[in-house]
Amino acid sequence: MSVYTSVSPEQMSVWLRNYSIGTLVELKGIQSGIENTNYFLTTTHGHYVLTLFEKLTREELPFYLNLMTHLTNHGLPAPKPIANLQDEVLGELNGKPASIVTRLPGAPVMQPGPVHCASVGEMLADMHLSGQTYEGEMENLHSAKWWAAVAPDIFRFLPSEDEKLLHTEIEFQAGCSREGLPQGAVHVDLFRDNVLFDGDVIGGFIDFYFACVDSLIYDVAITINDWCSNPDSTLDPSRAGALLDAYASVRAFTESEKKIWPAMLRAGALRFWVSRLYDFHIPRAGEMTHAHDPEPFRRLLLSHREKDSRLYPLPDS
User: Fold this and answer.
1) What confidence tens digit (pLDDT) does each residue in 46-70 have?
2) Which domains does the chain have, with CATH numbers?
């Protein structure tokens, strides 16, 4: 779902006086956001992205903004937060916490091939390794506790078969221990529209506002579920193999990760089925809204439950 807060050119021009990035040339709303209001911001000094945070609080936001800075300091193509004249990367605009970050080159590739998936796998592994030295702490706000908490609100909208599927999968995931799995800063929303390709090269990966500290293999599963899915909600073995092989060439998978891999694929599908069900049936009021279809993730979850996960195994190091 997208919720937008309007910002006028006059308001933006005044706000920019507290920055050293020039004066306003153009402000254009981005309608593809999920949780936040985003604008393409062009000034006399360059191109940026303005974000107004609709749900995240001022207390939570330093984790995300500092993570992006940390990754850029390690050479990764993440958006870099811009500090204002008080050397703060977080301000307030129209009553909402707001920030400006660099605008990265490229555009999403919505029909990726194995080459694109390999690039994403390599980059994700680089991010996981770089994130090992990031000291920020943030619980996954859309974890098993969240699934269990919102499920009762969703059940009443579902046919009995889907209600049973949701109940049994939440119960299954509650029994899957992640103890001993490698942990660290993870993106957990690295969908196709959050990676920008500049030609054949990744120009950037964006939208870190679901990031948290969680199992690295869970982040891999979420990424695979989007980048390697077919229209029939199965995974394409060639794309999945390319992504996993490229990832493993940078960071080897552990034996504990290989063991829990099928469950993590299911967990990744469940997480987005639940969030899309919630946003579809219980939308949040806003000036502009857009709800994503939950159905692809329901079918993907069913596919993971029914099909042999050896079609896309984790490679050996």
Assistant:
1) 999 999 999 899 999 999 999 999 9
2) 9-102 (3.30.200.20), 114-311 (3.90.1200.10)
